[in-house]
């Protein structure tokens, strides 16, 4: 089984100026489509899935002042590979909380799971959750500015 660290790729560490969930999904989806990592239906599928199954994660219970994250993903048939796409948002973007879907969260980081194998999704998700719910990891991530620094940090933690 691939480790989460092996699913990061230097070219898939992104920064976005998007101000809404739909904007960021279209921006990242178009980028992934250009790289032929997803199919034509990916953008609509990820928007639809996020609407029905929110992926925002409130990190306030972990430690005060931690940035919130979201883990957007969709079904395997829309993906052509296995990868984790990291996006640092320039602006807080509203996502619904995965635990309490009626709550909105301001999210700063996205970890898109791109996965073409049904069996691997829960392992990747649980590894990401373990990383995100570690206060030190999230505090260190906040200190990283460049995509290179972020990539190095993610593959080594």
Q: Would you kindly provide a brief summary of this structure?
A:
It contains six helices and five strands, in the order H-E-H-H-E-E-E-E-H-H-H.
Secondary structure: number of strands: 5
Largest sheet: 5 strands, mixed
Note the beta-strand portion: 15-25%
* Strands side by side in the biggest sheet: 1-4-5-3-2
Please tally the helical runs, counting DSSP H or I stretches of 4 or more residues: 6
- The average pLDDT score comes to 94
Note the run of SSEs as H and E: HEHHEEEEHHH
Euclidean distance between termini CA atoms: 17 Å
Q: Helix amount, in percent?
A: 25-40%
Describe the global form.
globular
Question: Which regions have little confidence, pLDDT < 50, spanning 5+ residues?
Answer: none
The secondary structure category is alpha/beta
Radius of gyration: 14 Å
- Multimer state: single chain
What does this structure look like?
The chain has helices at 4-7, 21-34, 42-52, 121-132, 135-143, 147-155; strands at residues 13-16, 56-57, 68-70, 83-96, 104-114. The protein is an alpha/beta fold and 157 residues long. A 5-stranded mixed sheet has the order 1-4-5-3-2, with helices on both faces. Strand 4 and strand 5 (104-114) form a beta hairpin. Helix 2 (21-34) packs antiparallel against helix 3. The protein is globular and about 40 Å long. The chain starts with a helix and ends with a helix.
